[in-house]
């Protein structure tokens, strides 16, 4: 008698799930790695393999992969008010409490909070508010948005247009017109011989000003920047960069938006990346660490100058006609509030500062590897430059698939690495210990050794 064979998760996944950021044809052949549970900075797959996650998922699992305390809060919130919108003069306690808390801890004075569901939504909403602001001032021609090469600001059509990485635009008919990308801020890759970081930063600021003048300052609405560039490989800015950039923006009355989706809530060794680099944004976008990825939520913080114009414009046309169904979800707000309480109890900023020397030391210790050209970081975010030749800083060609080789050996070693073209990016859960940081370095070296052996074998 034939027994019914139950398909595995891997087989069922290939038959039903469409995966982001994935080679879809290859996935039909290989299937997924199915993660079944997590504990601290580790996750385990359905084959029993345990991995140290050096990237906190997608930069977001700040408290790791299990938290009963927050689960109880979510349960209690759901039994009290499982859902209610905050549209049309309606509100609820969790949305009010969370908004007040965010205004209290904001790096610069802010006036109001617009709650959303993801970093993409919050950045997309910020673009609309920037345009709304300039319309309210009678300057609708100010529509152009400037971002940097290597930036990532989301996956909506607008935010992917802002993203300074052509790989995200191919075959989508994007980016839209009016989204301008200025120079990469990778000092290691882009500095001229003998150029100091300060001189490099001045050259980038001069290039930004030249771009503004070429486009016409009267047409430029805002400049977007993440304090540390995540998509570029967890890349900190060169010395003096933001001081010089903000001077240019002020000169031409261009709004400044800080994308703190990755950097916010202790990641950089301060509550905000804006505090590390003395940013004075008009709008601030946050997500990821806001709930430690335990539920989807984001927020856009708006200063009084912009809010004042918004109130007048909404009154003129009848309403601020914008919103998402799940924005300000009471359960997500309650979870985010509890996460912020946990950060306070942990003294998350002091904790990250105390771990920073071990983390940066771990990155520096890998600079002697043949594949590593440089290491940079701040707080608990940073990365390694991957090179084919240290002397010339030459990158590997696509035929080598160095990223794929490193990832293959990383999984064998038991570590999840976030590998971008030319860099390995690190942003471990903020609960990581010094011993786990050391282990992260040891496992990374194993992955690099395996990839280097493959490169040598292929060229032999």
From TrEMBL:
<dbReference type="InterPro" id="IPR015421">
    <property type="entry name" value="PyrdxlP-dep_Trfase_major"/>
</dbReference>
<dbReference type="InterPro" id="IPR015424">
    <property type="entry name" value="PyrdxlP-dep_Trfase"/>
</dbReference>
<dbReference type="InterPro" id="IPR015422">
    <property type="entry name" value="PyrdxlP-dep_Trfase_small"/>
</dbReference>
<keyword id="KW-0032">Aminotransferase</keyword>
<protein>
    <submittedName>
        <fullName>4-aminobutyrate--pyruvate transaminase</fullName>
    </submittedName>
</protein>
<dbReference type="GO" id="GO:0005829">
    <property type="term" value="C:cytosol"/>
</dbReference>
<dbReference type="Pfam" id="PF00202">
    <property type="entry name" value="Aminotran_3"/>
</dbReference>
<dbReference type="InterPro" id="IPR049704">
    <property type="entry name" value="Aminotrans_3_PPA_site"/>
</dbReference>
<comment type="similarity">
    <text>Belongs to the class-III pyridoxal-phosphate-dependent aminotransferase family.</text>
</comment>
<keyword id="KW-0670">Pyruvate</keyword>
<dbReference type="GO" id="GO:0030170">
    <property type="term" value="F:pyridoxal phosphate binding"/>
</dbReference>
<dbReference type="InterPro" id="IPR005814">
    <property type="entry name" value="Aminotrans_3"/>
</dbReference>
<dbReference type="GO" id="GO:0008483">
    <property type="term" value="F:transaminase activity"/>
</dbReference>
<keyword id="KW-0663">Pyridoxal phosphate</keyword>
<keyword id="KW-0808">Transferase</keyword>
């Amino acid at each position: 008698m034939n027994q019914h064979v139950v398909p595995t998760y891997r087989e069922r996944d290939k038959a039903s799930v469409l995966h982001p950021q994935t080679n879809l044809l290859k996935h039909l052949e290989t299937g997924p790695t199915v993660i079944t549970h997590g504990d601290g900075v580790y996750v385990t797959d359905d084959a029993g393999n345990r991995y140290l996650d050096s990237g906190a998922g997608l930069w977001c699992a700040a408290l790791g992969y299990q938290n009963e305390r927050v689960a109880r809060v979510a349960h209690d919130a759901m039994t009290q008010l499982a859902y209610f919108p905050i549209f049309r003069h309606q509100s609820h306690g969790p949305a009010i409490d969370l908004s007040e808390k965010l205004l209290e801890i904001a790096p610069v004075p802010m006036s109001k909070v617009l709650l959303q569901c993801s970093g993409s939504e919050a950045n997309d909403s910020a673009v609309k508010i920037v345009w709304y602001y300039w319309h309210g001032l009678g300057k609708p021609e100010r529509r152009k948005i400037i971002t940097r090469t290597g930036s990532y600001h989301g996956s909506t059509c607008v935010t992917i247009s802002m993203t300074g990485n052509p790989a995200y635009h191919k075959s989508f008919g994007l980016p839209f017109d009016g989204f301008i990308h200025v120079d990469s801020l990778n000092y290691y890759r882009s500095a001229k011989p003998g150029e100091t970081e300060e001189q490099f930063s001045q050259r980038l600021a001069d290039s930004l000003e030249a771009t503004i003048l070429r486009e016409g300052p009267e047409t430029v609405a805002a400049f977007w920047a993440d304090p540390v560039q995540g998509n570029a490989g967890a890349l900190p800015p060169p010395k003096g960069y933001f001081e010089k950039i903000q001077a240019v923006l002020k000169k031409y009355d261009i709004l400044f938006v800080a994308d703190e989706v990755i950097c916010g809530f202790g990641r950089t060794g301060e509550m905000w990346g804006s505090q590390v680099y003395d940013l004075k944004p008009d709008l601030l976008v946050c997500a990821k660490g806001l709930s430690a990825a335990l539920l989807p939520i984001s927020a856009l913080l708006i200063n009084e100058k912009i809010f004042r114009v918004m109130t007048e414009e909404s009154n003129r046309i009848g309403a601020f006609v914008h919103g998402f169904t799940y924005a300000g979800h009471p359960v997500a707000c309650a979870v985010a509030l509890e996460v912020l309480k946990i950060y306070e109890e942990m003294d998350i900023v002091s904790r990250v500062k105390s771990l920073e020397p071990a983390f940066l030391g771990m990155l520096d210790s890998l600079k002697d590897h043949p594949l590593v050209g440089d290491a940079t970081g701040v707080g608990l975010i940073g990365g390694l430059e991957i090179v084919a030749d240290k002397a010339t800083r030459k990158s590997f060609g696509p035929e080598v698939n160095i990223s794929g080789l490193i990832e293959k050996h990383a999984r064998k070693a038991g570590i999840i690495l976030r590998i971008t073209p030319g860099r390995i990016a690190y942003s471990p859960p903020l609960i990581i210990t010094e011993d786990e940081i050391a282990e992260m370095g040891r496992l990374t070296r194993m992955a690099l050794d395996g990839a280097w052996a493959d490169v040598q074998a292929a060229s032999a």
